[in-house]
């Protein structure tokens, strides 16, 4: 709010685009026009405007005595519905020896044009007038540029201490920024993040997107920012809960866990004999398609709600439901041919980390992989309005081969049914990914994570996770430089 000393300085200056003086106390139209013009801030200076009641044009006081009635009259301008959007203003009485001054301090609106009774008022120097078509266009364009998506808005109350800065430096920035540019960038971390849209310098705090992606505890500020997995026995939620897990924490760390969970616990690859000498690997739910559907839900969800992403598994299907219906220009009629992004900064970060592609091809590839695996098309449900749901059926090939049960999820096996005869190789327990990693290292100790991922038909993040597990258990270790070193096997897996 303006101080008495600042007001004295204003009174001695001439009127300008952000100062108007008047001795009138009952010309409400004039007051509203001035407040509307200050709100529009046509020059784009960002300065507050001051309507000063009780002073002549030369700055001398009129001897006004400000009473409660006048204060209430000016204060009611904000909420009487004649100026829309509502102006951001404060009203204060300041007393001098020669009389009182009533000051209405008006902040520039972030969503111009502001209208008084349907007209757009602006100030050109010391005078105000109705905006021309060109001036109104300028204000409209400014409004569009000021509208931020939720992930770009400041997460008020947070600081840099709420972010995992070491992870950002170690893992994210080297992927998001060219190596030579990053080496020359000597700016503090907040300015570097601001350049990527993850820090708001005006409010000196991280954005909502930064908290979701890198926050030490995102749920503290965005209560629904987690994925809830539940395995129900049967075909609806009335069945017993066999397994559940909550993927909370920031996305950069949880996406690795989700990726691995889908690959090791949901996909469930099985060899199916096609002939005496040939087998075909079929998954209960294909890894890439299931991963893509869940990653899209995380990327496109509404983070303003307290509801999580629901990842529910039943005997015959998986359902993924994310808060927030179709966004922007996407509709049931044009889906999936048209794309729009509710969280563009989160989407860009997930692309940088390798979890999505942002080329509007994901749904087509999902449908193709599901058909090839025997699951049929994914079903998209647009009827929930405030949520979006996709249903993935269990693979028919998987069940036809006799793999209708799974001990890890507690599925009931087919009662009193003898196992079908099949070649010995098909009956063997499939290797787990860590055992495969050991065999790959044994054959090539100098192999890179990327090469491992290609051989395993997996992702570098999943391989990194399992390498970390094997290292922590003392089974393997890495000697030498990151790129030029080699892997050493210390213990063999049973």
UniProtKB/TrEMBL annotation:
Region (Disordered): 408-430
First-tier enzyme category under EC: hydrolase
Documented EC number(s): 3.6.4.12
One Pfam family cited in the UniProt record for this chain: HTH_24
Keywords associated with the record: ATP-binding, Helicase, Hydrolase, Nucleotide-binding
Keyword Nucleotide-binding appears in the UniProt entry: yes
GO molecular function, one term: hydrolase activity
Domain Schlafen AlbA-2: 15-129
Keyword Hydrolase: yes
Protein name: ATP-dependent DNA helicase RecG
């Amino acid at each position: 709010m303006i101080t008495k000393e600042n007001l004295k300085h204003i009174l001695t200056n001439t009127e300008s685009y952000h100062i108007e003086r008047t001795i009138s106390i009952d010309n409400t139209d004039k007051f509203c026009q001035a407040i509307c013009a200050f709100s529009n801030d046509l020059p784009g200076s960002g300065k507050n405007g001051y309507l000063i009641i009780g002073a002549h044009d030369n700055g001398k006081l009129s001897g006004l005595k400000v009473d409660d009635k006048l204060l209430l009259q000016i204060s009611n301008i904000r909420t009487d519905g004649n100026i829309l959007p509502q102006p951001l203003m404060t009203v204060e009485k300041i007393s001098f020896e020669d009389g009182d001054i009533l000051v209405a301090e008006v902040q520039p609106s972030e969503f111009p044009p502001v209208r008084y009774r349907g007209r757009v008022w602006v100030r050109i120097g010391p005078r105000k007038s109705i905006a021309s078509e060109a001036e109104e266009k300028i204000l409209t364009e400014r409004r569009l540029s000021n509208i931020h998506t939720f992930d770009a808005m400041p997460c008020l109350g947070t600081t840099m201490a709420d972010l995992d800065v070491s992870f950002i430096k170690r893992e994210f920035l080297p992927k998001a920024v060219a190596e030579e540019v990053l080496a020359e960038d000597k700016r503090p971390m907040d300015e570097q993040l601001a350049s990527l849209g993850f820090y708001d310098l005006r409010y000196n705090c991280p954005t909502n997107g930064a908290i979701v992606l890198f926050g030490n505890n995102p749920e503290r500020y965005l209560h629904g920012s987690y994925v809830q997995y539940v395995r129900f026995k049967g075909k609806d939620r009335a069945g017993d809960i066999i397994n559940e897990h909550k993927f909370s924490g920031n996305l950069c760390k949880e996406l690795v866990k989700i990726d691995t969970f889908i690959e090791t616990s949901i996909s469930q690859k099985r060899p199916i004999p096609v002939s005496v000498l040939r087998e075909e690997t079929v998954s209960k739910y294909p890894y890439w398609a299931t991963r893509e559907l869940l990653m899209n839900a995380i990327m496109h969800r509404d983070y303003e709600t307290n509801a999580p992403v629901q990842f529910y598994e039943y005997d015959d299907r998986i359902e993924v439901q994310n808060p927030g219906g179709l966004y922007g220009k996407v509709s049931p009629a044009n889906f999936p041919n048209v794309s729009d992004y509710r969280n563009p900064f989160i989407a860009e970060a997930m692309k940088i980390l390798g979890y999505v592609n942002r080329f509007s091809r994901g749904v087509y590839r999902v449908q193709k992989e599901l058909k090839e695996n025997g699951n049929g098309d994914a079903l998209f449900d647009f009827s929930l309005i405030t949520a979006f749901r996709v249903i993935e059926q269990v693979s028919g090939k998987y069940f036809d081969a006799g793999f209708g049960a799974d001990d890890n999820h507690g599925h009931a096996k087919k009662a009193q049914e003898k196992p079908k005869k099949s070649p010995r190789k098909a009956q063997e327990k499939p290797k787990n990914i860590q055992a495969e990693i050991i065999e790959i290292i044994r054959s090539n100790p100098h192999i890179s994570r990327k090469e491992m991922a290609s051989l395993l038909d997996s992702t570098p993040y999943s391989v990194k996770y399992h390498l970390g597990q094997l290292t922590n258990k003392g089974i393997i270790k890495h000697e030498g430089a990151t790129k030029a070193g080699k892997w050493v096997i210390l213990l063999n897996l049973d």
